Give the backbone structure.
Amino acid sequence: SGATDAQLVFTASEVTLSGVYRVTVSNATGTATSDGAIVSVAGHTSYAAWALGLGLLSPEPLADPDSDGLNNLLEFALGLDPEQPDAQPLTLRFTTDGGADIYAFADLPYNPAAIGVSLDVQMTNALTNWDALPGSMIFHADTTDGARVWRTFRSVQPCGPNDLPRFFRARASR
């Protein structure tokens, strides 16, 4: 009767995903829904919590507020600042994978705390058709240099630096 406290405490709840949560309370006189509150779970961050936590003026996943060619969702997946222009984060190298064949390798910074987003690298021989070589790059390994985590992708088929023109791009999706 007459609960008027400004704070509501849940003692027996379990939240496993970070994000923006709202509480709906109902009683005999009606229903009220709270504003969104950011809930952070150690080691995990959702896109919504990340964007809200940064106070992004353009929080849409495909927006690019710093005009560096990397949309917000990709900057989230890479662990970059969406309001500070970044140099292209994709590093390419052509080397063997322990045998005689040469493969294309793409290294990217990676945000292991980012949940609900996948990161991949695409390769094509024509900028107008990114579906030209579907499944052309596969996950190879995650490594760390102590400061950040790097995700490496490798071409499925051998390809040297002198093969057909090759174009690469990083893509984040939900």
